[in-house]
Amino acid sequence: MINGVKRQIPDDLKAFEKSDAFKKIKRRLINKKEKQSQTVFFDNIEKAFDHFKIVSGQCLSFHHHLRNGDKVIEMVAHEIENRNLINMHLAPSSIFPNYTKLVDLIKNKNVTNIHTNYINGPVADTVSQGYLDGKLIMNTHGGRARAIESGDLKIDVAFLACPVVDRNGNGTGAFGKTACGTLGYAISDLEYARYVVLVTDTLVDELEDYQFDGTYVDAVVVVDSIGDSDGIVSGTTQLTKDPIGLKIAKDCALLLDELDMIKENMSMQTGAGKTSLAVVKYVKDIMKQKNIIGSFASGGITKSYVEMLNEGLFRELYDVQCFDLDAVESYHKNRNHKAMSASEYGNPFEKNPVCNKLDFVILGATEIDLDFNVNVTTDSLGNLIGGSGGHADIAFGAKVTIIISPLIKSRIPIIKERVTTVTTPGSDVDILITERGIAINPIRQELIEILKNSDFPLFTINELFDLSHRITGVPREVGHESKIVGYVEYRDGTIIDCIYQVKRFQ
Amino acid sequence: MKIGIAGSKESNDCLVTVKESKTTNIIIDSIVAAFFYDQIKAVIEETLKELNIENVTVVVEDKGALDYTIKSRLVSAIKRMEKSV
Fold this sequence. Notes:
The structure holds two protein chains of two kinds.
Chain A: E1 40-42, H1 45-51, E2 59-62, H2 72-82, E3 88-92, H3 101-107, E4 111-116, H4 122-128, E5 136-138, H5 141-150, E6 157-161, E7 164-166, E8 171-172, H6 187-192, E9 195-200, E10 203-204, E11 219-222, H7 229-232, H8 243-258, E12 267-270, H9 274-289, E13 294-301, H10 303-310, E14 314-322, H11 325-333, E15 337-339, H12 342-346, E16 360-363, E17 367-369, E18 374-375, H13 391-397, E19 400-404, E20 408-409, E21 412-413, E22 415-416, E23 431-434, E24 437-440, H14 445-451, E25 458-459, H15 461-472, E26 480-489, E27 495-502
Parallel strand pairs in A: 1-11, 2-3, 2-6, 3-4, 4-5, 5-26, 6-9, 7-10, 9-11, 12-13, 12-16, 13-14, 14-15, 16-19, 17-22, 19-23, 24-25
Antiparallel strand pairs in A: 7-8, 17-18, 20-21, 23-24, 26-27
Chain B: E1 3-7, E2 14-20, E3 25-30, H1 33-50, E4 56-62, H2 67-83
Parallel strand pairs in B: 3-4
Antiparallel strand pairs in B: 1-2, 2-4
Helix pairs in contact in B: 1-2
C-alpha cells in the first residue's frame, strides 16, 4: 500500500498516515518492572548472562550515552559470540562506528534483528549491504520510548552503562572517570525491561543524587572500564568557519528575528553540528542586543547553551544527553540544567513532552524533497548513515521547523524530487534555508505572508531544485536492490518508509 | 616523460594528472561517480577535443568538483605538462 508520504509499504505493516494520527489512539502501557529481589553484584558480564539465563532469540538493550567510547555493547557482543547465541535481537538507542564487533555477529547470524534510532559506520554498512537476516527498525528518540512502554519492543535484559553506581543499585552519569552527564535515553529501558543490569567501573557506598533508581535494578556488573573518555565527547565543539555555513547561520538568525521568534520566554533546540553552533551564536547576539531572556533550550546540550544558561539568557536547559564535558559539568553542578528522559523529550503519548513546547528548531538534512520530506537516515546511494534521533519528534512538536543546509554538498544537490528515504514528513518541515535561497513550505501560508515583503531571497522549493541542477547537472538515478533490510518507524509506530539493500556499484 | 598536475583533493575540488601516452586514456575516481561519472567523462573529452590534445592519460581524483572546476584543472594540468621537461 501507499502511505501518507507516498511511499510503498508492505501490506501487512501499519502504514504512516499523518504526523498527528496518534491523537486518535489511546496510550498503551505495559506494567513497569517489579524488582524480584535484592540487587546482586557481579564482577563480569558472563555471570550476568548465567544469572539471567540469557538464551538465543532474546532481546538485549543498551543506551548510547558513551557514544563512540562505549565498551559495554562490545562486552555483551563478545559474550553472545562466546556462547554462540543466535537470532539475538539488539536494541541499542544508537549504533556508532566503534561498535565493530556487531559486524561479525550480524554476518554470523548471532544477531538477526536490530532496533535503533541512529546507525553509522561499519555496522550501518553491513546492514545496508543486506547481511542482517531479520530487519532493522529505525525509531525516533520519542518513538523508542513509546515502543518500549507499549510492549511493542519487549526487552529481556537491558545492559545499561552507568558511570557511577552505589550499593543500592542507584546510578548516575554526572561524574566519575567515564562521566557522560544525563542518561535520558535509558530511562524506558530501566523501567520496562524484564531485567536491568547496570554496568559500571565506579562503585560507591551511597549516592545522594541519582538518575537511575535502584529499585528497578536487578544486578550491577563492576568492570575495569566501561568506556574511553575520548570517544564519549562528541567531535564538534567549534562553530563553523566555512563562509557558506556562516551565511546560512546568519540568515537563519535574521529570519527568526523577522518572524518575531526571538522574544521573551522563547524556547529553542538545534543540533550540535558546526553550522547549528553558528546559529546559536547569532541568536545569542540578538537576544543580548534586545535583552531577551528565553524560557529553555533543549536537546543534546552543548557548551554554547551552557554559556547562555550561565549568562542568564535561558532560565533552564532540558537535557537528554550531554554532548561535551562543559555540558556534563553543568548538569552536575547547575540545578537549572535538568535531565529529561527520551519519553519526556519526544514520546507522542506523553501529556506535554518537551518537544511540543519548542518555539523553533534548527535541523539538518541529508536530502529534502519537493514535498519537504527530509532524509537523515541514508545517503543518496541508500547507505545508512544516521537516523532520526529526535529529528522527527521535534519537527512535529516545534511551532516552526527550519532545515539549514548548503544547496549543494560536494556536487550532490540536497533537494531531490523524492528523498531516498523519508525520516521526517514534509508536513512538519516549514522552512529550508540554503546559501542561495530560502524556501517556505506552501502549507505555511502565514509564514509566507510575514516574509513576502522582506529582503530575504525567497524561492519555491522547485525553483531551488532547478537552480541546483543548473549548477551540478542532473544526477543519475541510482536505484536500489529489491531486498528490504529495514523500516523507518515513525514516532507513533507506523512505517514511514522502507530501507533497501544498496545497489552493488560498478 | 611529460607530466602535469593541477588541483587538490579538498572537498569540491579535484586533482588532475596528465601524462603523455601512446593512446588517450581517462581514469576517473570520483566520490560522486554513481551520479556524475558520465558528465565528468564528457567534460574531460570535450576539453581535450577543444584543445586538440591526444595521446594523454588523464587521471581525475574527484571530490565533488563542478564541471568548470574539472575543466580549469584539466587545462592547467595540460599547460604544466607542456611546459615540463
